Amino acid sequence: MAALAAGVTPGDLALPARGHDTTLDGSGVLRRAPHLDDRFAVGWQADDGRCVLVSGGSSVVVLPDGQRIHLAVAPDLPHRWQARGVLCALGLPPESGARVHGRATPPPPAPNTLWIEDEPTTDWALEAGSPVLDDDAVPLLLADGPAPVQIHLEASLDRTGIIRTLRSRQPPPPPPTLVATTIVARTAYLLGREGLLRERTLHRPGAEPVIAEREVAVWRIWRPYTYRDSLGVRAVIDGVTFSIIDEPHRPVIAHLPDRTRHWAAVPGPATSMEAPPAMLAPAVAAAVDGAEQLIDGFRSH
Question: Is the pTM value of this prediction over 0.90?
């Protein structure tokens, strides 16, 4: 297990008994301190300023200088021990449970999708019940939680069993279970007859997607600098650019943000550029049709 923090020795944490009084180091009596209670721990305080917060399967010794020493009754495997340290950092007893309620699975992209960005996040909630730390919740705790707190075995430091005595005198509240739900925020860039659409949707397990944001970039007349007599239309949202040029050999060009997704749809001989996904063909055809009408209208004025 982790070594003690600098400047702390087992003697600092030894809790010997003296008659019916419970002392931290022989210099002060431990008394109930209800003002130190929290949702999951019972507070005790000594005359010398030391405090002990006792939970069902753990405790926290608070030294006069404010340093907190976290103790757990039962050991665990190393990676799970780290996860229990994360629970401590979240203000929960390390014997608390954690489980995964569900993971959102967004549907396949629509046929007119140019680009998708999926951003998974984890939503945590507390619930009462059996405090079991599920294996599938451990990686989520380690990835999404704060840095784990050092935890020491209670028996190795409380050699006289005083914390166990305190626990039996005033039983603490039961520990909670932390429930994880993975939510996916999807940003999709869609190609349409009128231009580009950026749509941000939130996906939760077992629920319909919720549209959080929607933005439209309509076709605008564009004069390509490489084609003196050409006209075109262009729509741009967040670095996604879709251009349609009124020129026979290269009418449609897409630039996506990572610069590796660069393709062109051509009516004639193939070019060195990557071809667009086949499922986009109907959307590209509709976009070209809308662009041609816009360009024809512009030329007629």
Answer: no
